[in-house]
Design brief:
It holds the Pfam family PK_Tyr_Ser-Thr. With about 1000 residues, this protein is an alpha+beta fold. The chain is built from 36 helices and 20 strands. It folds into five domains: about 150 residues, no CATH class; about 220 residues, Orthogonal Bundle (Transferase(Phosphotransferase), domain 1), CATH 1.10.510.10; about 150 residues, no CATH class; about 80 residues, Phosphorylase Kinase, domain 1; about 190 residues, Transferase(Phosphotransferase), domain 1, CATH 1.10.510.10. The longest helix has 29 residues. About 10% of the residues have low confidence.
Length: about 1000
Amino acid sequence: MVNRWYRRNRPSNVVRTPDRLGDYVVALRNEFVAQNAVCRRGLNLEGELRAYEKETRVLLKLASTGRVVNILLRFGRVLESYMEVMNIEKTEEVLQWRDQLTLERQQRVEFFQQVLKDEQRLLETMGDETQQMELLTLLKHDVATHHTILTPEELTVMSDVYGRVVEHSGIVLVGEPPSWFLSPNDLMCENGIYYLDAVRVSKCVTGEVLRTGGGDHQSWEDQEEACLRQASIWADLNHPHVAKLLGGCHIGKEPFVVHEPAEPLVSNRASAQSWQPLLGWALGLQYLHERELGYKNFDDTRLLARHHVTSSGVLSGLGLVPVKRKTSAPLKRGVSNMFDMKSLKAALPKDGDEEILLDSHQIPTWSVPNDILAFGLAIYNTRQWVSMYSDEKVLVLPPSRPQFLNKQEWDLIQRMCERVPDNRASMWYVVHQVQSFVKTSEPPVADKKNPVDLSVSLDPEEDEDDMSTESYNPEHIDEFIVPKMCVKVVKAMPRIKGMCDAISEATPNSMLSHVYNRLSSLHSQLQTNANIKDATTVMEAFVSVLDLFYILLTRREKQQLSSSAVASYCASRAAAQDIAIFHHEIDRLLTLAELRDAAAPGHSPPSHVTLADIRDDSSESIDTTLDSEDIHEWLFTWNKMRREQLRAFQACLKDTEGLTQQLEDPKIRLEAQMLLQFELHKRRSSYPNSVLQAMKQALALLDKLGDGAEAVPIWFIPPYEVVLGKHIGQGGFADVFHGKWFDTDVVVKILKAPAPAKAPGKGASPPASASGSSEEDTMALFRREADHWFMLNHQNVVHLYGACHVGTPFFVCEPAKTTSLSSHVKALACARPGYKYEEKGGDPADIMRCLLLAGIGLKYLHERGIVHCDLKGNNFMVGTDGKTIKLGDFGMSVLKRSGKGRHAAHSNVGAMPWKAPEYLLGGDPSPASDVYGFGMCILELISGNFPWAGMPEAAVKFHVTKRRALPPRPNGKFSDLQWSLIQHMCCYDPNDRISLAAVVDMLHTFRFAQQ
């Protein structure tokens, strides 16, 4: 086989391969690297072409034509940029690379035309049916992706080959490949490590699902079908603790999927010492169950931990199947109105009562209790393995508690592994318990600061007023101080009762009062602590629960009233779950204090119960007063209250006249439609079938009132599933908050409303947007931006989990350190023993690594047609692992490019030193504008100062647009090569600037060649 990477392969004597494509560019690259050894770590053309060159099937090489031509064209331009930056004269051999590539492409077309004429050879190169399907898919994908750079001759020969294969095989492809589809050549492999879009990824073969019995259903027998099913399910999942699918390939001999870098925890015992990975798995599994998905085969390969963040547990998306949903019967008179399995079992219909069936596409194949059991055993085996107790997995729990588990941990695992499936603990109970294990096993360190503080406070300043209790050691419960209230328990209790009463009057909510009554009872029991085990620990825990309950009440007080009764009822589901969490916290305190039996009926964790239908003719009322002398047997009462909410919800949905009146406003109607569709399709397991049927009827009515129902976007998150925390800051388009979504740390960006005619009143969230065409335009842009952002999957780009476009629009994205690159580099330098930051500044290795990662993220955006248009040092963020650089604050880029958004961006105070001249003159931003802005970011980070530091903005604009000048070169900070890079990135004419691909390649070179 001809090796064209041989060092002596030069343009003067090019080594010709049978394929021809890229021979001259390869020779040119060899000569340039030989003459400029400093560049040997960059210009990795060999790595990009490795998969293509290893392919021996001729027609499959044809199916990669567009991709390879694109690589060669980009590389040639990058090589020219190197020469410009390094001030190397372009010889005649360099200047003719485009002509040589064109000639190679023509010769290659002629080669394939000859293949088409040779019938026998053509049939041999087609391969078997699997290879033919692979060939057709890749040909179609390559033409669709790269048709703009393919010549008419190339398109013709690819079309002819496609037609001949279809004619021979009879295979007809309908539609386009899935949005997640990857060509096998899109992956780079270096020393067994896979890379996609210049970042490390994990690859797994989907055939494992079939081999392990996870997909033994007849329709899963074919590997391509299994991959399509698995990848389609996985691609729709978007949660911090479910590994993000980055793509997949369902064709060929070995279909595969690619996800964010994560590996089974069993490969690293040190990473599993904490309960943190298990909490991540629990949160991920809770999310999957909300989506009515579960694992057919729950084994260790599903339990992953992220690279770089060894304590972050994530679940694999392989092996997921729809879970069983329990059917339910109409509630008849005389039957308990609890959601109780035993009571309802006798009430199942025997007289032909009609049931509401699942949608035909949701065929149940697995159950939630089975997942709970498997996860309980996984927790047991993980803790056993971590403790070095044994490496042998157990399939059945031992009869007594092992030494490596404490009483609370053992109790949880036993509840998860109950013999009777319906008695097993629910997933949200498991999450809550594991969260408590994390807190108790990892005491806070005084000098350790979390990357993101997600504690919820009344206002941003409240933490400063919290009273320190470190030196305060009370002995009586009433003397303890509730931190957020800054008062002692004796004064906090009546204040909290008043808040409960006020909220209940405004919005009837006896669930809150029920929690307070239990807290009040426990408070009375703690008045005498002589017989209480671990009294101080119990009292401290009581204060913590009281503190959290106060935060919840404060949040409820600040919440704006729902725009409609429908919105309010939809939100009641999440609110009821929040209340249940407090009940379980109180149960935990009672058990800890040994004030009641841990196995008491009211203390049983919520199990997987049947939701009974509500009959239209039911006249029964729900008495929400206590049905038991023991106030702490709360589950019965909580279920009755929730059922009353559902009965009222169903009545509201069936009240055609009332529904029509309250939803006359198109905006309110749209919100109701979105929320009803979301609850119906995404949270259906939380409702009895009778309420689901009422939702369908109400949606049909709303369709007639408007112009038809708008489909729920895949990124939609209802506002009641997001809990706002501390305010972080604000920009020109959004206010930014810490928050929680599915008990997971997130950042929430709430879109600012247009400035109203008069000042708005205070509230927990920004005021509703003013009506009018401008608002409609803004909402259309918001939806467009959410569509774009949600499709981005790259570790150097802040990840969007979801958004809400009804009511007050907001984005929900991953948390990242709110710090600038300069501050991050300083922190890294100061953390090095003996490194003197004041004398040396940032470490050059840290600086180049940060810039390279930032550039990779920006390049990823540009390749998908997204312009940031607001680059500056503090828009590059640091991931919670303290290492990964992420590009942030681009979520409003479409809004920034709109008319009013562009005006706001132009007038953005403080951002002018980073703006390109064409943008300052009122032009639209472009990728070249981002190259200019990134050049200023490089100048800022290496020099340690802002561009044009100390100069008024009017003077900056004059120098940039009139004098066409760059900031002065800082003394001793830049090598000639680095300064030349900035000069070529920041040319006045956008057409003269080098490409971002060249910038990223040079940053990689500079990283290994400090000047």
